[in-house]
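Lab channel / #folding
Pinned by the channel admin:
"Please post every new chain as: sequence first, then the structure tokens as a reply. Keep commentary short and put observations after the output so the thread stays searchable."

First post following the new format, from NK:
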Amino acid sequence: MRVLGLISGTSHDGIDASVVDFTIDGDGSSTRGVDLRGSVLASTSVPYTPELRARLIAALPPAQTTLAEVAELDTLIGQAFAEVAADISAEVGGVDAICSHGQTVYHWVDGAHALGTLQIGQPAWIAERVGVPVVSDIRIRDITAGGHGAPLVSFLDELLLRTHAGVSAALNLGGISNMTVVRPDGLVAYDIGPANALVDAVIVEHGLNPLGYDYDARIARTGRVDDALLAALLADPYYALTPPKSTGKEHFHLGYVREHLAAQGREIAVEDVVRTLTELTVQTVARDVAAAGIEFLAVSGGGCRNPLILDGLRPALPGTRVVLADELGAPADSKEAILLALIGWCTMHGVSAIVPGGTGAREPRILGTITPGAGPLVMPQPVFGIDSLSLAEAAAS
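Reply from TO:
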């Protein structure tokens, strides 16, 4: 089955897409799980138009918005996802199903509990445009089972890391940094804190880069770490919470940076702010990796292309082998889209796609809702789980 995964992450800069051709060993009819193989046929990343991104940023917390604006963004983002889906589907000669994460606009967390989450990007536009079933709204079922709805990537991480000896982990550096730690006796996953979210917010506010992020750390390189500001940022109570835990731009946003700067009572050059926020990511991640005794760390997400982050992590973690997620068969730039394709395959086959230790859910659940395509909804034969997963890149056929 060919499944297209679509996602726009917490950096809300565009749409990532990957088509994965999944095959299983055997017919999947036994009571044991299947050995699943995935060939990545094509991947792409398409930026939002500047106009759409500006409207999205203006509507995100802590800003106030209207139901009218939410409804319009739901349609416009759904249409943008649909065009990306149609293009990459045509590139590979068609897909059988799609799984769309959409765009998170609010993740409701109260203390140690997630109570709700909202992703927009109406899947009916995608189903209408491409004509195949679309799995969507994948996070909320985990929350109803007592989980945080994040990080869902822990499901993929566990499958990819389970053969590694000792303590291994997968780190994703998107708007928020999250980590899955796999030990011989179990798994834990959680959101560490901000990765790119705060830097991106400052870049956009000051118009420092039309791309909306610190490309190649060029701005941070011109600044210095402000120790007093960094100490105040590191004192945030979120970091002291025990996993599982989740966070987002509801907490780590531009207003958060402004409050910390105002509390300093002095002028701090914007370049120093960017450098300090970059160092915040390095220190919060390194602290948690070291505390977990991680020996192997596979990194993905936009932040893995920031040389100051990787160059900061490696010397801070001398006992940890730090590599890109490509070594696991999941390209670092498209890992989350591959995850969405995997979740789509699981939902269509009746397989739960969460690891309770990864999200805090009481037990596994099948994720998402399904929007039918152009014809009747025909589900494939259910399988009983996944025993192993191997991923490889392949030329589109």
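NK: The two ends are 14 Å apart (CA to CA).
TO: also worth noting, Residues 67-91 form the longest helix (25 residues).
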